[in-house]
Amino acid sequence: MKLQCSSCNYRIALLLAAITPLIGNSLAAFSPPEQLVVVTDDSYPPYLFRTDGGQLQGIIKDKWELWSRKTGVPVRVEGMEWAKAQETLKNKGADVIDALAYTEARAKLYEYSLPYAEVDARVFFHRSISGINDVASMRGFTIGAKDGSACANWLEERGLETIRRYPTSDAVVQAARAREVPLFCMDLPVAQYLIYKQNLADEFRETSPLYVARFHWAVLKGRTDLRDFIQRGFQRITAQELQDIETRWLGSSLKLPVDPRYFYYLGLVAAGILAAAVLLILWNRTLRLRVSAKTAELSTALGSVQMHADRLRELSAHHDSVREEERAHVAREIHDELGQALTALKMDLSVLGMKFGEDNPEIKTRARELRDTVDRTIQVVRDVATALRPAVLDFGILPAVEGLVEEFQKRSGIRCTLEFLGTETRLAEDKSIMMFRIMQESLTNISRHAGAMNVEITVGLDATRFHLEVKDDGCGFDVEAVGRRKTFGLLGIRERVIMLRGELSIRSSPGAGTEVSVSIPYQ
Predict the structure, then answer these.
(1) Whether the model pTM is above 0.90
(2) How many domains, in total, are found in the chain?
């Protein structure tokens, strides 16, 4: 038994001795490059494309920069026309080509990596054309395609000879836009990006996928040592790091298909709205905390009561100014960005309902329900934007007052009369906002505490001053007693009037209603 083991070990030792020089020679034959040059198509968003300034950006650039950091080998990514990129690698002007789909013909030229992405190719055709659904239906049409693309080769292999080649994907879409070609073949992500960028979504239709291409990077045939070296570098990159890069560039779908993913995206929109509301609340709370901290610092630093009051009033004015600016900004962002997005979503739902609902009542019903949900969401967005800052303030204080009174009367059921005396002189924007908030606070107090049935509002205008009077027939109150309790509603009105260098009069008694009069100078 021992002799057999010794003989076995001896043979293993001889085998290792024989292959060790071969392994050593193989390893010695390859040394890592001082710099890796990667070429690919520079018009293939989101994998690689150029900014308005001509700088390269996209998944491929970020991926190779990460590989470089992991391996310590510098990488230069060069973007160019796709056919030129392939020719550059063949002429050994580069080490690697990326975003290369596998074909039998190319397998004779390249050493491929493992696949890292799947992309489906489709044919896009002008909306005036119908009946394009397979290769046979495309015969006789001139089809645009990018020079050197797998899509063009795929069509040629199936007998289509009327293919017109262009140097870039952007040039293909431009030709289709100019009606030089009625059909064009392209990978879906690139086509969607360029079509939506050029506002052509309503001009073109698309077929079902012709095929699904797997993306690889590759080196020239015979350079397996370089391929394996690069692959080992990618093995140092975690799946999460690669996922983070893809998430950065594949954020939002440009077109939602009618399948379960469509409802998933709608859920994301709803989640986005909720997240925006939460962020708004957190922002407001943060701002309040910052103002409170600043107020505490000033209170400690001031040496006299009068100086403290002046500084606090200045801070309050600044706080109101900042808050109003932020309210206006947030209101516009909500109205413009979110409102437009929801309107576009509603239009898309209408189109989907009309396009697919005739043959599928379930889709039609679901689209109508989703459209109703979007309508309600649009109304919520409008209400939030109006609550933050009424857009009618942009037209002056008088239209803003009319709108506020109308809304208050509708919401509270309290009868209101509004009278304008004199000729309008436009207030400065900051004064208009503060007078609007004073009136808003007055009406809020009436709604909460007065128990009134009628409210009379008078706006008086003369050559030098702006007058506001709000009178109700409610329960009234003891002005001095309430003043000692320092209620924040009346305190806010009083502070705003002081900041406007105006005059405030509050007349009330239990059972006799309340009258609030404010007068401020225009200048």
Answers:
(1) no
(2) 3
